[in-house]
Design the sequence.
């Protein structure tokens, strides 16, 4: 059970420190400032008080046993500290300390893993940045910013890059639930986390950053049974990149083609860039999956054409409109506009126009998902077409995603779309890439 | 000569209005608030005063003749107003008014063009959002935000989308010099603007958003003679998109394949997404072009591998390092790091490490351009590796671009890179795409 690690009622921070340069200071500080409501105990034999809290010399001195021990002591001291955790009855541990297999110290790592197993403690790490649980207001990590709450859980192979990505996502106001750095995966690995997330009610979508997977068969087994979208970015597909991956992770579980096959078998959506990973996770977390058959609407022709171009590049189908749809559109469009897919309202970005054309396009039996693009021209309140899309989507089960394009003037409209759980993107191509992954996910579901 | 339009000493705003809903109000307001230092005259027979300025009934009543007339009156009144401009000796006009060929009113457009030609006035538009000249502090457009000053000039086929794009770019703090909406191109077209920009000392790079070009031969002639990079996004390459383009612009100058050939012949770099267009224009405007042979450095292995993957996808070459380079790197890298390309410093993001490895990689004869990636882990001041790259680049003529990845904590470091004219991107893949276009531009220059 990973819940004692990822949803603890009480935490000991072992290696808690008053020295701002130490991870033991940062993690304890992050736990306190994010507002975690469970019990927290600093542990360090060399400190009497840390951050105004009483500090215990050892886990053995704690007044109660705790669910989670977070260990941030030098690598050489980890076995002894872990023994004490085991004797105290700590249920799970996160080992933030570095200096294990990632620097060739595999023996120490095996030793630590064996101690944890002897005491039946699950162990995250070593060499992980920790984890975040936004719904518990728990930042048990060295990540400086707490992300917004949301339905995406992010599993990332630790290391500097994984850490920086989470920090970046937090600065983008991306809504996350759990963020887990798996580190060296000496005990808990990606598949264990996936199993936990599968049952987790806050997690709607799983986003993964993967450098390598050791137990591929188990990964495929677990991933293919998850009833939630899993989207993964896996590095190392190039000649230069896979050579570097070999030296970076110290082990190469297979060539990229093997990963590609495994993802297909497991029903994992593979993303090719960080932007695709994050943008698509957003769409997958708040929208239903989409059947192919895409409709595109815009008040500025160029944007709709750009979106249509990329849609076809990605293999999406833009159906011709039915005769009824064409006649209905003729009834509402300005004379200079042509009823077609993609549909250009010839500049009209009013509530009425956007409501009418969105309703009509959604009623076309050939259109299974809709991309609505609004390009802001300062003469219209950009909230009006946003409200039109929000209203038109009401009671309709076809996915709708949007791209509101413009400068500072569109902020409120974008917020309204977000509040109404419509995936929105600042550029039309990013919306198309995300929509394509809604279609890919629907295909995965149909095959199951 | 377009300089009387784009660099005017004096301007009449014809159709200036006190009504905030009118373009004549917005344009006059934008001219004043952006801080243009030339003379400005509001013209409108129905207003005595606009925005606190004396309003003249007609251009004929102005105390002096002016360089530029900006016309924002109903389409039907444009011919009479234009006649008056001609009689007064106005040197050039911008017709913001809509209601011409874009709504099928080609006769009126031809009429207007003929009047302008009779009086030897060059004419931008009709149906344009106007233009911006940041170095003159002149916002003669309906764009609400004034962009930052910079070396990129942006020529865009008008319409709502072009307008929204400029507004978006301004909100991204993208540095621009001229922004020109070409509108219906009844007189001045893309090629005329290109000729002007070719000689313009503030313009380092030309960025174009194109829906269609009428006089293809002239475009190729002009573009192939420009000694500055031109990067263009052209819409309508798909089946659905090109059908829409036909109905949107009312004319289709050729299929996409013809455009592709024309761009190649003219030495125009073709971008495939808005993000590529903007990101690459930034790199082209502040960096020298790059020969193939890319080196990649990072303190977080995953980011370097991701960049290497995409580099190979795009056809870039990541050479193996020379024996000397390997030995020099062995002298500075931590024991756990491998001297290779891409190079991973195994987490070390210090000034000394970044300075040493950047110096050494730049000295390798096989490496002609360098991508330096820094992933922020909160334990290092992100300004230190930035200063290292700035110092290492000093006196070296190989292009260096960067990707600083992280949340709010890296802001100052990013600013330092920008100040030192190093193209920097928040994600490594965006840096690779931009670098690829530096290489494409160098190939274009070699063919000339």
Sequence:
């Amino acid at each position: 059970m990973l819940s004692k690690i990822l949803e603890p009622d009480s935490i000991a921070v072992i290696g808690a420190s008053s020295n701002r340069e130490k991870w033991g200071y940062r993690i304890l500080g992050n736990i306190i400032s994010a507002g975690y409501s469970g019990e927290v105990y600093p542990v360090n034999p060399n400190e009497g008080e840390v951050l105004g809290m009483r500090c215990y010399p050892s886990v053995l001195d704690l007044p109660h046993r705790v669910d989670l021990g977070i260990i941030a002591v030098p690598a050489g001291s980890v076995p002894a500290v872990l023994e004490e955790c085991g004797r105290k009855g700590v249920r799970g541990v996160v080992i933030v300390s570095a200096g294990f297999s990632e620097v060739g110290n595999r023996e120490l790592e095996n030793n630590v893993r064996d101690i944890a197993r002897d005491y039946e403690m699950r162990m995250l790490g070593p060499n992980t940045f920790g984890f975040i649980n936004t719904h518990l207001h728990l930042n048990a990590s060295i990540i400086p910013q707490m992300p917004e709450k949301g339905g995406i859980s992010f599993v990332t192979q630790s290391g500097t890059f994984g850490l920086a990505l989470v920090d970046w996502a937090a600065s983008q106001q991306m809504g996350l639930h759990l963020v887990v750095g798996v580190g060296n995966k000496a005990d808990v690995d990606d598949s264990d986390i996936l199993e936990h997330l599968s049952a987790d009610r806050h997690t709607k979508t799983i986003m993964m950053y993967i450098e390598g997977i050791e137990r591929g068969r188990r990964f495929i087994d677990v991933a293919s049974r998850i009833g939630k979208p899993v989207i993964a970015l896996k590095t190392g597909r190039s000649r230069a990149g896979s050579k570097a991956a070999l030296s970076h992770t110290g082990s190469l579980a297979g060539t990229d083609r093997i990963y590609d096959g495994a993802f297909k078998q497991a029903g994992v959506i593979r993303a090719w860039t960080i932007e695709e990973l994050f943008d698509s996770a957003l769409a997958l977390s708040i929208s239903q999956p989409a059947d192919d058959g895409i409709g595109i609407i815009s008040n500025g022709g160029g944007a709709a054409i750009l979106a249509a171009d990329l849609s076809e590049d990605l293999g999406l189908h833009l159906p011709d409109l039915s005769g009824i749809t064409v006649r209905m559109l003729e009834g509402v469009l300005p004379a200079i506009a042509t009823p077609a897919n993609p549909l250009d309202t010839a500049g009209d970005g009013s509530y009425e126009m956007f409501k009418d054309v969105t309703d009509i396009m959604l009623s076309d039996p050939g259109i299974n998902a809709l991309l609505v693009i609004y390009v802001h021209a300062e003469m219209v309140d950009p909230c009006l077409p946003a409200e039109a899309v929000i209203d038109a989507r009401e009671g309709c089960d076809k996915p709708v995603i949007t791209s509101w394009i413009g400068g500072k003037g569109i902020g409120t409209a974008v917020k309204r779309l977000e509040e109404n759980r419509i995936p929105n993107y600042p550029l039309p191509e990013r919306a198309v890439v995300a929509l394509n992954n809604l279609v890919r996910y629907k295909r995965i579901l149909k095959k199951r």
About this structure: The longest strand of chain B covers residues 148-156. Chain B touches chain A through 80 residues (CB under 8 Å). The domain at 3-284 of chain B is CATH 3.40.50.261 (Rossmann fold). Residues 79 and 112 of chain B are 6 Å apart (CA to CA).
